[in-house]
Automatic annotation (TrEMBL):
Summary of the function given for this chain in its UniProt record: Involved in the regulation of the intracellular balance of NAD and NADP, and is a key enzyme in the biosynthesis of NADP. Catalyzes specifically the phosphorylation on 2'-hydroxyl of the adenosine moiety of NAD to yield NADP.
The enzyme's E.C. designation: 2.7.1.23
Cellular compartments per GO CC: cytoplasm
NCBIfam families according to UniProt: PRK04761.1
Keyword match rRNA-binding: no
The protein, known as: NAD kinase
């Protein structure tokens, strides 16, 4: 029996054109009833698709119609059923962010790649870091800090000189951005079960914002970050081009 495929595309003209061609070739199923959801675009669109379809049973197979396409497969408009039948699955868990603002408002969001704290103004942020409720760093002066999953370790985390994590590793990367004090602090590797708390020091003069996969909360005073193992995202990759291989290859680029 032929697989039921649901196609979705970013607004990029190349993605829309490819999506229309694939729908003509293979038909269009409802996402809730599909065997596979095929996303056409870049990594940003893949993250949007994973968040949007988080409660659906179908895995997501991405084809790159964007720029980097780390989470995507190469685009081709032929032999798609054969590629899907041979695809390898990777299962990833997101992070849960709980951010408290200066007004006492509590905002929650999920992040597949990372949760980051960033200074809002010209002055460096000052952060106090706790792990599982235990103070680990009384004051980190920096442009920001983030907690990244293995799947997100090659994104913002890597640009901030954080480590690339194997996709099966049960660890999270805690990375500072432009750390001023301690000047040489390069971050930490934490168990996946760890709960990381950032407390903003002097936020009235040094305001800080938090982001979970580009969803922002401004003027935070506290941000809690922990893995959400009860939520799983299933991604499909062509054989030999899965996340494990990409993470290794990226380290030798």
């Amino acid at each position: 029996m032929a697989q039921k495929l649901a196609f979705t595309a970013s607004s990029a003209p190349s993605a829309v054109e490819a999506c229309d061609a694939l729908i003509r070739a293979y038909g269009q199923a409802d996402e809730a009833e599909a065997d596979v959801i095929v996303a056409l675009g870049g990594d940003g669109f893949m993250l949007q698709t994973l968040h949007r379809t988080e409660g659906l049973p179908a895995p997501v197979y991405g084809m790159n119609r964007g720029t980097v396409g780390f989470l995507m497969n190469e685009f081709a408009d032929d032999d798609l059923p054969e590629r899907l039948a041979a695809a390898e699955e990777a299962v990833i868990n997101p992070l849960r962010m709980t951010a408290t603002t200066v007004t006492g408002e509590v905002r929650k969001a999920l992040a597949i790649n990372e949760v980051s704290l960033l200074r809002q103004g010209p002055q460096a942020s000052k952060l106090r870091i706790l792990v599982d409720g235990k103070p680990r760093m009384e004051e980190l002066v920096c442009d920001g800090a983030l907690v990244a999953t293995p799947a997100g370790s090659t994104a913002y985390n890597y640009s901030a000189h954080g480590p690339i994590l194997p996709i099966g590793a049960d660890v999270l990367a805690l990375t500072a951005m432009a750390a001023f004090r301690p000047r040489r602090w390069r971050g930490a590797l934490l168990p996946k079960t760890a709960r990381v708390t950032f407390e903003v020091l002097g936020g009235d003069k040094r305001p800080v914002m938090a982001e979970a996969d580009a969803r922002s909360v401004r003027n935070v005073v506290r941000v809690d970050v922990e893995s959400a193992p009860e939520i799983s995202h299933r991604l499909l990759f062509d054989p030999g081009h899965g996340l494990e291989e990409r993470l290794i290859r990226e380290q030798f680029a």
